[in-house]
Every structure is written in C-alpha cells, then in structure tokens.
Automatic annotation (TrEMBL):
SUPFAM superfamilies: Enolase C-terminal domain-like, Enolase N-terminal domain-like. Its EC number is 4.2.1.40. Pathway: Carbohydrate acid metabolism; D-glucarate degradation; 2,5-dioxopentanoate from D-glucarate: step 1/2. One of its GO terms (molecular function) is glucarate dehydratase activity. InterPro entries: DgoD-like, Enolase-like_C_sf, Enolase-like_N, Enolase_C-like, Mandelate_racemase_C, Mandelate_racemase_N_dom. Residues 149-244 form the Mandelate racemase/muconate lactonizing enzyme C-terminal domain. PANTHER family: D-GALACTONATE DEHYDRATASE-RELATED (PTHR48080), GLUCARATE DEHYDRATASE (PTHR48080:SF4). This is glucarate dehydratase. It catalyses: D-glucarate = 5-dehydro-4-deoxy-D-glucarate + H2O. It is an enzyme of class 4 (lyase). It comes from Nonomuraea cavernae. Gene3D superfamilies: Enolase-like C-terminal domain, Enolase-like, N-terminal domain.
Length: 410
C-alpha cells in the first residue's frame, strides 16, 4: 500500500454559542482542516487539524512530494520524513504530522480490517468518560449567555441531565479570579458528589494562583490545570497548594516530559493527539507517565469527529487513564462524519468499532461546511469579539467585567 494523494479541505462548523477563554474566544464556530490520505488500493484515511484555510491546505499539498509512494505502515519513518527534529527548527510541522499520522493509522486499520485501538495494543475499555467542558459564553440563537454563577450552574445541570456528566471542568481566565472562584464553588455546592477541575489557561499571576488554589483545597477536585505559565511557575504553585496540578501547555513533547520527571511541576499530563504530533507519541508519553507515577488524561484542542475518534482510540488503550477526558464536542451543533455527532451515554462516548478510525466523511456535510468557511472565513482565536482592542497578557491584568452582559453581532 502506497500513498498516492493528500487532499485538505477547510470547514467551519457552528457552535451552540461563542465560547470565551482567557486569550480570546471561539467566535461561534470551529474552523478545522479535514485531511484525506489516499492510497493506491483506493482506500482513504482521514485526518484533522485545527484552524486552516488556504495556508493549511497549501501546507498539506506541499507534503505530497515528501510522501508520494510512502507506505502508511511505516509510521516511524513518517515521523522523520515530516518532522525531523533538526529540520523542524525551520519548519515545525508537528500538527501537520499529527493529521497525516491519523490518516495513515486509518489506512492501516482499514487494510487489516481492525480498529486503531487494536493497532495500538488492544482496547481495555469500550467507552471513554468525558468531563462537561464548561465555558463562559455570549448568547446565541436558542442558547443563553453564561456569565454568572447561577447561569453556569443551570448550564451544567442541563448538560448533566442530557449527557450524564459526573465531572465538570470550568474554562476560566475570562473574569477576575474572585468571580470565577465564586462560580467554581457554586458548581461544587450544586454537585457535591461530582468531581471538578479548573483551567484559566495560564493567565493568573503566581499570587492569584496561590489564592485560588488554597481556596479550593477542600473541594472535590480532579486537578488545577495550568494556573500559571511555565514549568517553574507550576512548581511554585505545586509546592504550596494541596491540589494536583495538570498541564497541556508546557509538557507537550518528550524534552519537557523529561524535565517534569526530573523535577516535578505537574502531576497530570494532558495528552493531546494534535499537540504531541499524533496518537502514537501520546501512547509513548503515557508509558513514561505510568513508569514515573504521573497521571494522564486525554486533552481536547477543539475537535470534530475525526480527531474525536483519535482521542477515543487513545483513551481505549491507556491503562493509566484515571481521569475523564476533555472534549469541546458537546458544544458543536453538527459534525462532518456520517450519522452526525457521536452520542454521549452516561457521560461517556463509545469507542468506534469499525476498521481504522471507524468514522467516515459525510460528503454533503463536508461540502456544506466548506462553503460556510468560504462565506465566513476564519476568526482571530486570540481576540474577543465583545471586547474590541483587547488582548491577553501573561499574567493577565485586564479581565472582563462580570457585571456587564455581553452583546455582540458576528
């Protein structure tokens, strides 16, 4: 089996509402690039990458001369063909590699008639539990604003009833830490049996992080995720706060993982199949974490069904996956895969059982959302449409005003 073509299509899929985060917002939609890796036997493997547009599509087209004739089974050679560590100093292709690796794993699984989870060593669970990824957000048609503790609790309550979530993650860093602490405590009061996690995307100062961390020590926490930026900052918090720390920002490769093993800053490493350059690097990293008694969880960088499938297959095979995975997925209104969105049941999603990734493209949906991308274009992830001229600093000093209701037109 040899690669004969690589095609990339950028789509934009609507979210329920614009989601706010510490560095800006998702402006009511996700922009993703869908990758198709075609082999000489007619099989097509699927990949996915965040963001996109003409530059991403051109970047994938530029990889074809590197990979035409490449055997998708040769995954280790694929890594060096695309992301040689020395060459990557000039052209970092980690996320491109991830999408192509997804496609190659999909091809290999289809060729052999087995799922990706079987290629990775065999599933030890048939479903992966997820947290209710909670965002502060602007209002949209049919979906209310989330800004106050009462609004947040009501949203979490509805998600819990609809999907069965027993873990709740609050994406913070939008409003002053004191307001977000009030919101977090409101979740704890409403769901005393459920577990909690908080992620301000590293924009708190050390003093704010310590105040917040100490204030939640008595709650039913999974972990405090990236309260400050950098391994040294995390170490300082970890030394003084009795809540496990997690990161998806500063342990995203093996050099950083080694540093964290030698001098621990984070207790939990959040494995992202895109940030790490594919599913297989995440599996390798999980083995290191198992050896050194670091926790692992599956991280979400904003997925459609293809990347979600990679997260599910990864989660299916990790013996040390003791935390629920993250996913933006329930925030989407639709998907580009056949059958539409994968369903939650009891707070979990079943691991696809078909060959390869076990998902296939719905061509009509892909065409519809590719056209929507051409109509709307991209958006600046690191800007907030409700705060013209604002941008985040690290640590941030200019938080949104929680007393002001946001009104935006996209």
């Amino acid at each position: 089996m040899k690669i004969v073509d690589i095609r990339a299509t950028t789509v934009t899929v609507p979210l329920e509402a614009p989601l706010r985060h510490s560095n800006g917002a998702h402006w009511g939609r996700f922009v993703r690039t869908i990758v198709e890796v075609e082999a000489d036997n007619g099989l097509i493997g699927l990949g996915e990458m965040g963001g996109g547009g003409e530059s991403a599509e051109a970047a994938f087209r530029a990889l074809l001369p590197y990979l035409k004739g490449h055997d998708p089974f040769q995954l280790e050679a694929l890594r060096f063909k695309i992301a040689n560590p020395t060459a990557s100093l000039y052209n970092n292709r980690t996320q491109l590699l991830a999408a192509i690796e997804f496609g190659c794993l999909d091809l290999v699984g289809q060729q052999l008639g087995v799922s990706v989870a079987e290629l990775l060593g065999g599933r030890i669970r048939d479903e992966v539990p997820f947290a209710s990824y909670l965002f502060f957000r602007y209002a949209a048609e049919g979906h209310a604003e989330i800004r106050t503790p009462e609004q947040l609790v009501e949203h979490a309550r509805s998600l819990r009833a609809a999907h069965g979530f027993g873990v709740h993650k609050l994406k913070g860093g939008v409003f002053p830490p004191g307001h977000e602490l009030e919101c977090y405590r409101a979740l704890a009061d409403e769901f005393p049996e459920d577990r909690l996690r908080y992620d301000p995307n590293a924009v708190l100062s050390l003093a704010e992080a310590l105040r917040f961390g100490k204030a939640i020590e008595g709650l039913n926490n999974d972990y405090l995720e990236d309260p400050v930026w950098g391994l040294e900052g995390l170490r300082s918090v970890r030394e003084q706060v009795r809540v496990p720390l997690a990161t998806n920002t500063v342990v995203v490769n093996f050099e950083q993982l080694a540093s964290n093993v030698l001098r621990r800053a984070a207790d939990v490493v959040l494995l992202d199949t895109t940030f790490w350059g594919g599913v297989r690097p995440c599996l390798k990293a999980a083995g290191v974490c198992e050896t050194f008694q670091l926790g692992v969880a599956v991280h979400s960088s904003g997925e459609l069904g293809i990347q979600l499938a990679t997260m599910l297959h990864l989660g299916a095979v990790l013996p040390n996956l003791t935390y629920a995975a993250d996913a933006h997925y329930h925030q989407l209104r639709d998907d580009v895969i056949e059958g539409g969105k994968l369903a939650y049941s009891g707070g979990a999603i079943a691991v696809p059982t078909g060959p390869g990734l076990g998902v296939r493209l719905d061509r009509e949906r892909v065409a519809r959302y590719a056209e929507l991308y051409r109509e709307l274009g991209g958006y600046p992830y690191d800007r907030d449409p409700g705060r013209p001229g604002w941008y985040a600093q690290v640590p941030n000093e200019r938080f949104a005003d929680p007393t002001v209701s946001g009104n935006i037109t996209l």
